[in-house]
Amino acid sequence: MNDWSTRGGFALVLALFVAVVAAPSFAGDPFAGLKMSRLPAGSQAMPFELKGLDGKIVKLSDLGGKVLLVNFWATWCGPCKEEMPALARLQQRLDPSRFVLLTVTTDLQREGITHFLAQQGVDLPVLFDEDQEVSRSYMVRALPTTVVIARDGALVGRAVGPREWDSSEVVAGLKVFMERGR
Question: Which uninterrupted H or E stretch holds 127?
Fold first, then answer.
């Protein structure tokens, strides 16, 4: 065996070791894959009751026991448009009996939103925050802002800016929340 193959073999073993050790452990920290800020323990999601694009009322209290991803957006927001297709794909990849994706907007033009969703080729639940009370209670200062609510109603994560919501890392991170609750 020559010196090059020995060094090459050692380099391969070292690279594999570093990759395994440095890889994010979703079991330990699902936020690594979600690229979200962890919120302080004890933060509870503020209850809300909002009307959807379909006219139905959605209450946070009716969604207990499921992990929620709540995305605050607007039709005029470029980064929001960018991430809408990924949100739609994420919704399709996770079990609806354990996961709910909601989008919340302060836009009031229902016809415009319907047109926007059709133009984007997405089918997402849209809730209207007409008085911006929910947006204020979730401290939305920039769009898009997305929060994760654990099965017990704890507010556990926050992301400001667009994400690749359907990436394998995000899906794995959300599945951790779905399995262990937080």
Answer: strand 126-128
